[in-house]
Amino acid sequence: MFRKILIANRGEIACRVIATARRMGIATVAVYSEADANARHVALADEAWPIGASPARESYLVGDRIIEAAKQSGAEAIHPGYGFLSENADFADACAAAGFVFIGPPASAIRAMGSKSAAKTLMEKAGVPLVPGYHGDDQDPALLASEAERIGYPVLIKASAGGGGKGMRVVESAAEFPAALGGAKREAAASFGDDRVLVEKYLTRPRHIEIQVFFDTHGAGVSLFERDCSIQRRHQKVLEEAPAPGMTSERRKQMGDAALAAARAVGYAGAGTVEFIAEDEKFWFMEMNTRLQVEHPVTEGITGLDLVEWQLRVAAGEHLPLTQDRIQLRGHAIEARIYAEDPDRDYLPSIGTLAHLRQPETSADVRVDTGVRQGDAIAPYYDPMIAKLIVWGPDRDAAARRLASTLRDYEVVGVSTNLALLRAIVSAPAFLSADLDTGFIGRHIRPEPDTAEPDAVSMVAVALTLLDGSRPGEPADPWDVADSFRVNLEGWREIQLRFGGTTRTVRASPGPDIAYRLTVDGHAWAARAVPGGVSLDGISHRVSVARRGDELTAIRDGRNAVFEVVDPLVPLGAKGSGDDRVVAPIPARVTQVLVAEGDVVTKGTPLIVLEAMKMEITLPSPRDGTIGVVRYAVGDMVEEGTDLVQFAASPAGAESA
Ligand code: ADP
Questions:
Q1: CA pair distance 380, 352, nearest whole angstrom
Q2: Which of 223, 296, 342, 518 has most Cβ atoms within 10 angstroms of its Cβ?
Q3: What is the pLDDT of residues 129-162, one digit of tens each?
Q4: CA-closest candidate to residue 549, choices 466, 643, 479
Q5: 163 CB less than 6 Å from ligand 1?
Q6: Which residues, in sequence order, are CB contacts of 35 under 8 Å at separation 6+?
């Protein structure tokens, strides 16, 4: 076995490979771009080497730099993860030429499957069933149009070099064909530098079922069964599960055999996935992905195997750990891909900092594969995935219920997410009854809004955060302790919160112990913070509050209600001050001093700016007058009640200048 490997990737898959390597006692070398200098995969690896600027073209896609890092670090093998260089045959060759083991299939197998058209020709010879279509070299538009006619509309035009749904067009009729062909070719040329296309029958209600195969370098191969990836948005996978609902052992065997034949036809070794499109009892080859897939944890869930461990063993020349008859299928696993995407902007990546991130607790049945932590950024350069959530249950119902409840544990503030879409999918009756096909989302899903309405629980949680600095749901975050404080309330106090276009008011008065009486929408509650949430009249509710400056987000059941504080503390400070004094309303740091001794000010002139609880508090002058003494400077820490500024004793007329 290897002593040290380099992982030529980033994000969750780099972290996931590192985890297995560590368990196997293999040292890990990470590589990173400028944007990833503090990324999670860098922190997890034994060592990490910089390989260039943030855009992938200047770092993660530069094979030479990665190989150089492997040389310098003394790694023996290179794991490419998925995406980036994982299906780049030239990179696999370059690794071998430089003396490194490429943890993946032979370059020849990558090449053979690299073109969807060429792969189909090969598969035809190997007796693997194909969707009726045309995948020839002749790209004459007239010929393609007549082939479409022969196949029968609707047809699907696909880029031969395609991936990620690019260069793909559904064509309903002959009249639309020329324009669709032009569009597909332009997109294919721009994305892959290759405008060749194939045309195939477009199935209207198919399922996407793929088979995970594994081969060693001694010719043995096994099927690790299927995954159903029919829940897609715009032909891109959103949810994957195994086993496929309704799969019989007979059909599983047929598909497994077809997949093994496909892999054998290209001399495969390592982990690979043969993708099929299926309708009714029939299935046809679509393509083979010559790498580990995003959704491999689903297979790990039902087999109890570690596919990365198998990859490492095969790459090191070992035999497959198990024969086909020893591989067991147990229970049901589902994976949801959690993305930083904006549902209001057609699921474009949502770029930003994960100001607050809490992920579900993991257990034997709940797995979270992630590459980010709270405070990390979703950068514009890479895939905006936050995590993969994988749940296991003894059967599909149990797994689906587990997934639904676990999705509600997600707390994300700072970027938009697809969580509302995922929640809507897992609660849809058609999903629960396993009525699946690739058009499922379009037909069944109207996602609930991403944001929650401001209810009493979230408003109370936000008010308590402002009142005593405790953050409901986050009792043990040491990060918060420094700016915790407690306000001495005298009588009533109003907290004004802006939500959307409206301003809502919470009236607060101190109660016994740490409880408050809070009045929200005319109803008074005995409220206090409790571990994991807030208690209203003795009944506790789960809620978390995340704070960014004046913005407070209450998170319940994975949904966010975002409030803006309307000057919560200034009136308090002003109230406690005599007419001649300006005092700090809370313990704070001085961030700006806007006046000096002798300055003439009028009532309301900003004098000093403080910062506390990551919030700016501007202290205005309580009256017209001349500044006598400014007692503190920028950077000073001041206690609650500290005198900050004193007015000059003002003889009549002194302010006339
Ligand atoms: P890519 O490599 O760009 O992701 P694939 O060939 O893997 O493209 O296909 C992606 C998805 O497109 C499939 O999962 C399926 O939903 C849909 N698709 C592909 N071929 C067909 C077809 N012949 N009929 C209907 N849908 C198809």
A1: 9
A2: 296
A3: 999 999 999 999 999 999 999 999 999 999 999 8
A4: 466
A5: yes
A6: 54, 377, 379, 381, 382
**Ligand 1 atom closest to Cα of 275?**
7
Question: Domain 4-103 maps to which CATH number in 2.40.50.100, 3.40.50.20, 3.10.180.10, 3.30.43.10?
Answer: 3.40.50.20
Which ligand 1 atom is nearest residue 116's CA? Answer: 6
Residue 282 has a pLDDT of: 94
Q: What is the mean pLDDT of residues 441-467?
A: 87
**Looking at domain 132-201, what is its CATH homologous superfamily?**
ATP-grasp fold, A domain (3.30.1490.20)
pTM of the entire structure? 0.83
Angle, CA 281 vertex, CA 278 and CA 286 arms, to 5°: 25
- Least confident range of 45-59, 94-108, 238-252, 634-648: 634-648
Ligand 1 pocket, 187 CB below 6 A?
no
Ligand 1 touching residue 230 (CB < 6 A):
no
Q: Please identify every residue annotated as catalytic.
A: 291
Segment 530-552 mean pLDDT: 91
Q: Would you tell me which CATH number, out of the four given (3.30.70.260, 3.40.50.10260, 3.30.700.40, 3.30.70.360), belongs to the domain 456-565?
A: 3.30.700.40
Phi-psi region of 654 (alpha: psi -120 to 50; beta: other; left: phi over 0): alpha
Distance of alpha carbon 388 from alpha carbon 374, whole angstroms: 16
CATH number of 581-647: 2.40.50.100
Could you tell which of 205, 210, 235 is best to mutate to test the pocket of ligand 1, judged by most ligand atoms within 8 Å of the CB?
235
The 10s digit of each residue's pLDDT in 278-321 is 998 899 999 999 999 999 999 999 999 999 999 999 999 999 99
- The C-alpha atoms of residue 164 and residue 166 are separated, in whole angstroms, by 5
- Ligand 1 touching residue 275 (CB < 6 A): yes
Segments making up each domain of the chain, as ranges: 4-103, 132-201, 207-444, 456-565, 581-647
Q: How far is the CA of 235 from the centre of ligand 1 (A)?
A: 6
